[in-house]
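Fig. S4 source data, part A: sequence.
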Amino acid sequence: MTRIKKPILPDHPGWSRQSRGNLVAPSTCLTQNETNMPQKEHRESLKHAKRIVVKAGSKVLVESSGRPDEQQLKLLVDELAHIENQGGEVAFVSSGAVGAGLDALGMKTRPTAMQDLQMAAAVGQICLMRLYHDLFGENDVRIGQVLLTHDALKHRERHLNARNTLMNLIENRIIPVINENDAISTEEIKFGDNDVLAALVAILIDADALILLSTTDGLRDGASNRVSYIEEVDDNVLELVSDKADKLSTGGMASKLNSAQIAAHNGIPVVIADGRKPGVLKRIFSGEDEGTLLFPKAGNISRRKRWIAFFNRVEGHLIVDDGAVQAMQKGKSLLPVGIKQIEGSFKVGAMVNIQSSEGEPIARGLVECSSQEIDELKGRKTTGKSGEIIHHDNMVIL
């Protein structure tokens, strides 16, 4: 039986090739000018980034008790406001609502019951937005609150409405402060939620750069060496990750790396950096070697196909033969005759990964038959009801 290679984060809308990642610590880069040249070019390109998405994690924004760290918030807000006042366009993805709610409610540890997390998020979101309103106001910058869920971004009409809302705020010089709608979510309050959300927002608004702020200065290779840049995130890169979620935050470096991969594969450079370091954004957008840079990948796909590939959750896998791979790469639809194996149970319209016999990712697409129907049709020359399993207009070649 063919072994199916699963994406590193199979439950999230991102995907990752299983090639060996190229990652270099600063000391290595400085002694290999040829290797360092692509990094210099990408760092330089950040000087010209106009529309940016900045995500700050809970540990950047709140104290250990969960109370918002007003001094730290002011430093970060001042930097974001400066970018906006200099003609930049900023979208700010802010964590910290649950932590702020825990403090306001007098809870000492993060609860496990979903209804308690939702309650903390509802209370904490008000605390954070009150602070943001005042701090941005001191810089003569207006803000607007936008609460999103993955389900909203998956639905095509609501996806477009979300984009239109964000773009209208940005065009009117209003910084959208974005968070997941944790007060009503039952699925999104979990590992890596806002990291993934930030990557999807960056894709949604065609951002020029994504900055993921944490309490470390990027990925580290051992205790002392900062990884300056990564060409591709894979298992070799993820083996370097040692941090874990705690009582206030749900994500970690693995979440940031996999989320960065989503944005990078849409041509958006990503920097993971220390959000508690004064002037960190200024250094990044001055082209300095700050944090860990993930190289953007070349490619240009339509917004609709971005929605197909990155905003829908994978519900199954199809293994196809070499003939089907060649046909799809030439722009053809996927027919039943080319399918060798199926994994997962899914309905019509579900998103599936398409992989070669060797397990390499080939494409993603929306199926026109259920998994049961595909299982009955696979390998046959008959075309079934629709004539195709995935139409080429509903497919993205990876």
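Fig. S4 source data, part B ends here. The chain is about 35% helix and 20% strand.
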